[in-house]
Each structure stands twice: as C-alpha cells, then as structure tokens.
Amino acid sequence: MAPDDTDPDLPHRTPPRMRILIVEDEPKTAAYVSKGLAEHAYVVDIASNGIEGLHLATSGNYDLILLDVMLPGADGWSVLQALRRERQTPVLFLSARDEVADRVKGLELGADDYLVKPFAFSELLARIRTLLRRGSTQVEQRIRLADLDVDLVRRRVSRAGERIDLTAKEYALLDYFVHHIGEVVSRTLIAEHVWDMNFDSDTNVVDVAVRRLRAKIDDPFDAKLIHTIRGVGYVFDSRAE
Ligand code: CA
After folding, report:
1. Ion ligand 1 — residues with CB under 5 Å?
2. Can you give the pLDDT at residue 140?
3. Residue 138 has what pLDDT?
4. Which of 22, 86, 142, 208 maximizes the CB count within 10 A of its CB?
5. 156: left (phi over 0), alpha (psi -120 to 50) or beta
C-alpha cells in the first residue's frame, strides 16, 4: 500500500539518473566503460555473458544497452533478437569486428548504433548522449514503465510481452497516467482530462474506471503500477508497494 500522507504540493524529486547496462565479457573493457560512465553520473550494471545480459535487459529498466557481439552464452545478435521481441530499449553494439556485413546485420536486427573497438571514451559518450536524446524525443510515440509498453501511435498496450486489449475509455485513462508517471493525480484532474468534464460531484466514475484498468494491467502481474493515495487520488509508477 502506498503511503497516504503524500503531499501533492511537494516539488517532484529530481529525475532519476539514466541507467545503462553493459553486456561485455572482457573485464577490462567493462571496467573501463563502467568507470567512465559512472563519472558522468550514469547508473551502470554489467553482465559478463549473453544469457545474464538478456535477463537483465528484459527484467531491468534500462535507458540504454551497450552490447558486445562476441559473448559467451549467447552472442550479441541473439541477445538483440530476443530483446526486440519484448523491448525497444536503445542498443549500441560494441564490437571488435569491423565488417560491413556485421554492421548491417546489427542494424537490421534493430540495433540503434554500432561502435568498433578500440574506441575513445569521448566518442562512446557522444554516441550514448545522442541515443538518449533521440529516445527522449520518442517519448510521444512510445512510453515504457517497468514491463509495461504503451505504443501511443498504434494505441497498443502490452505488459511483459503480452498484448492487453483496452476499451477507448480505459486507454484514455492509461494515456493520462503514462504522461504523468510519478505524479499524484487527483480524481478531479483525471475526470477533467479523461472525460473532458467536471466530475467534482461524482468522482466515483474515476474509481470505477481505475478498477477496470487495474484488472487488466495490474491484477495479473506481481508489480503494481497504479497506486492509490487515499483521499487524494492515484500515482502511476513502478515503485515497490
Ligand atoms: Ca567479447
């Protein structure tokens, strides 16, 4: 249960730091890249083989993945292929290979960029910043929170890779939530934005709609995304209860 003494007027916390996953089996490279990124305020996790890398990439909430091609367990190609079935996290391939065919293969499989080793850290950092910026301009097309994926263009919703069908109203409510992640939203605000009406006198309509949406996007899953702030409204985020 979320705390019910949350003050909606408190300023929002500073935005969380960007999280980067490094999937790299060479300890020296992993340590070098990780140290450099940490110095630039990124939160970094390292996986040293393809299987662990895929597990973290699909279960963690990363803003970007640096993916080596030649890896024990599962190579970078298979990791990317499996990842793309579930998530669109930007992927930057790091590889000692410099074959044109490899670059093409990586990009066809859905990699966002490709950097050949050895590389200067400054170049890696520049590419990372570009990809993260590009990601933030795509916010209007696709929003992800934990394992929930909302395609705002096709109006398609999935969670943990499973397609979820919503009614128009349920979708409108979810759309409002995903544009206000981490904010306390009152029933009145929701009523005004989702129903385009003033429901001051009967915000029960909102509670009913939230219950229906919860039944589809939260109830079947362990981690809840819609949290009730008693007497105030709701918060949509992936924090632990
Ligand atoms: Ca390698």
Report:
1. 25, 68, 70
2. 57
3. 45
4. 22
5. beta
pTM value surpassing 0.90: no
Distance CA(159)–CA(217), nearest Å, equals: 7
Cβ–Cβ < 8 Å for 65, 23: yes
Fold annotation for 19-137: Rossmann fold (3.40.50)
Q: How far is the CA of 115 from the centre of ligand 1 (A)?
A: 13
| Class of residue 202 by CB neighbours under 10 A (exposed 0-12, middle 13-18, buried 19+) | exposed
Average pLDDT, 10 consecutive residues per value, the chain (241 residues): 45 64 96 91 94 94 93 93 89 81 79 87 90 64 86 89 92 90 84 70 80 96 92 84 52
Tell which residue, 134, 116, 135, 122, has the closest CA to residue 39.
122
Domains of the chain: which residue ranges? 19-137, 142-236
Token pair of 5 as six digits: 């003494």
Class of the domain covering 142-236 = mainly alpha
Distance 70 CA to ligand 1 centre (A): 4
